């Protein structure tokens, strides 16, 4: 089968915001405790942070990490996580029915971010709490000193302000499962007043307001219209979330779910434009897709804890073990964000360590890369620059959720310096190789630097502590530039990163 991709150097979509390669750590399961923090682990540093995990995170260059939730944040008292460890309270977390001794709080998290080469994106609790806790929290974090909350931080040992610039106004407030769930009207008013107060403290902060938890939510897309009506002038980004599952074990239907993602972004962009017009505003609100990933492998095993009465500490929750098929899905999601770079300015893979995560750890044992680590890594390393429009002429299929789904899923990025061009390509066909041709219009001196590829005879193949290199990328030959066109043969069910010097 043949597929033709037309690009041109001048046919651009938008600059890709580096922040689309951000991630997320919640006080959930073993994300924090025995994930990033495990005093006594052979690789732990003086602060108790696991060095093996820090190395794996640093390599991804993930620019921001969202914290501390997630559902957790909606009943969280940030004050519990500051001050001397021995006097921090142990609390029951209502979201995940677990116990948390609060040994990690905002100060330690900011320290960890510095070590990991990333920055914090913090969420305030608009579920059980509200404006007052949020304004105190930002003062505690960001004021240099000379006020009650900033002096408290200094007294706790952090003399310099954390200067956190990216703040989420709650989490998934449209979800009935959320502690303190609200109607769009109630939430919109609260988010607006809280955002206003945070801006009165520092007008340079960027604020993210909650959109829908999923495009299947019964309140979608009215929720967005109402919330934006209240908050448009105060906020910068609208948060969306989406998780993907292949419960029916139908690969083609599964991989077509990026079409739902694309439609979701398209619809929400329309709602943003509608409110912008209604308000006669010049301001552009953009999308923060601050939770996305594959999430379904662990659903059954999680029921015992989520429905039980044990309140365990740092249990094995949401520990999806990803397979090779998920590489193709994650590659497709990242391609969608790159193609929608004009609208999506932040995206956070959810999450980063142990909990539906690209990085796994064993308590007291090794850390390893899950299969999905690789597409996230490559997009973050090579997907920075300008997203180019890529017009695909190739075979398609009809799936449950959409017709005419292209077998070839592609995004193309020209690097910020302009000297590199990268094609991220998924061949979704179950059995056929795709002959890719792409005339490199405007890139007369292009040459292939590297073709990185992931394939596997078994879609269910996984990596594990015992076998961490079962599903790994390899460099392949055969991809060339001839007469100004890129020529490549893409095996069935393959994920490809074709790097060109231009
Ligand atoms: O990432 C896991 C959970 O998914 C988050 O806590 C919540 O925001 C979402 O429903």
TrEMBL record:
Record's catalysed reaction(s): Hydrolysis of terminal non-reducing alpha-L-arabinofuranoside residues in alpha-L-arabinosides
UniProt-listed GO biological process terms: L-arabinose metabolic process; polysaccharide catabolic process
GO MF, one example: alpha-L-arabinofuranosidase activity
EC class name: hydrolase
The organism's taxonomic lineage, starting at the top: Bacteria, Pseudomonadati, Pseudomonadota, Alphaproteobacteria, Hyphomicrobiales
UniProt feature coiled coil, ranges: none
The protein's name in its UniProt record: non-reducing end alpha-L-arabinofuranosidase
Keyword Amino-acid biosynthesis: no
Domain Alpha-L-arabinofuranosidase C-terminal as annotated: residue spans: 290-494
SMART domains linked to this entry: Alpha-L-AF_C
Family named by the database record: Belongs to the glycosyl hydrolase 51 family.
């Amino acid at each position: 089968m043949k597929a033709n991709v037309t690009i041109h150097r001048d046919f651009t979509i938008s600059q890709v915001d580096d922040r689309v390669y951000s991630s997320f750590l919640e006080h959930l399961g073993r994300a924090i405790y025995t994930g990033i923090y495990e005093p006594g682990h052979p690789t732990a540093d003086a602060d108790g942070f696991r060095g093996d995990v820090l190395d794996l995170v640093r390599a991804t260059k993930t620019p921001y990490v969202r914290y501390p939730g997630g559902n957790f944040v909606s009943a969280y008292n940030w004050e519990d996580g500051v001050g001397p460890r021995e006097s921090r309270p142990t609390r029951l977390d209502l979201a995940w029915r677990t116990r948390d001794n609060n040994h990690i709080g905002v100060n330690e998290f900011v320290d960890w971010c510095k070590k990991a080469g990333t920055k914090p994106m913090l969420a305030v609790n608009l579920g059980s709490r509200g404006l007052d806790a949020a304004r105190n929290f930002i003062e505690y974090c960001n004021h240099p000193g000379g006020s009650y909350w900033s002096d408290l931080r200094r007294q706790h040992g952090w003399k310099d302000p954390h200067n956190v610039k990216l703040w989420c106004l709650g989490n998934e407030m449209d979800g009935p499962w959320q502690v303190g769930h609200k109607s769009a009207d109630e939430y919109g008013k609260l988010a607006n007043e809280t955002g206003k107060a945070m801006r009165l403290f520092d007008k340079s902060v960027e604020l993210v307001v909650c959109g829908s938890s999923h495009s299947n939510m019964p309140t979608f897309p009215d929720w967005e219209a109402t919330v934006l009506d209240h908050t448009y002038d105060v906020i910068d980004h609208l948060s969306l979330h989406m998780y993907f599952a292949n419960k029916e074990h139908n690969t083609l239907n599964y991989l077509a779910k990026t079409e739902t993602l694309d439609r979701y972004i398209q619809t929400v962009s329309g709602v943003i434009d509608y409110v912008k017009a209604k308000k006669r505003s010049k301001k552009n609100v953009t999308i923060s897709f601050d939770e996305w990933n594959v999430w379904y492998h662990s659903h059954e095993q999680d029921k015992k804890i989520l429905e039980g009465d044990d309140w365990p500490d740092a249990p094995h929750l949401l520990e999806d073990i990803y397979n090779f098929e998920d590489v193709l899905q994650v590659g497709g999601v990242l391609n969608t964000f790159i193609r929608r770079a004009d609208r999506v300015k932040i995206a956070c893979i959810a999450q980063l360590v142990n909990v539906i995560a690209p990085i796994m750890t064993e308590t007291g044992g090794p850390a390893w890369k899950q299969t999905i680590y690789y597409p996230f890594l490559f997009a973050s390393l090579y997907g920075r620059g300008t997203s180019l429009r890529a017009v695909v002429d190739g075979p398609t299929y009809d799936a449950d959720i959409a017709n005419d789904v292209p077998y070839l899923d592609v995004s193309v990025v020209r690097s910020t310096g302009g000297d590199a061009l990268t094609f991220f390509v998924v061949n979704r066909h179950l059995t056929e190789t795709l002959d890719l041709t792409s005339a490199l219009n405007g890139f007369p001196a292009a040459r292939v630097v590297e073709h990185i590829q992931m394939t596997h005879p078994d879609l269910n193949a996984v990596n594990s502590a015992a076998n961490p290199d079962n599903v790994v990328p390899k460099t392949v030959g055969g991809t060339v530039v001839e007469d100004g066109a890129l020529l490549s043969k893409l095996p069935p069910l393959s994920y490809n990163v074709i790097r060109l010097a231009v």
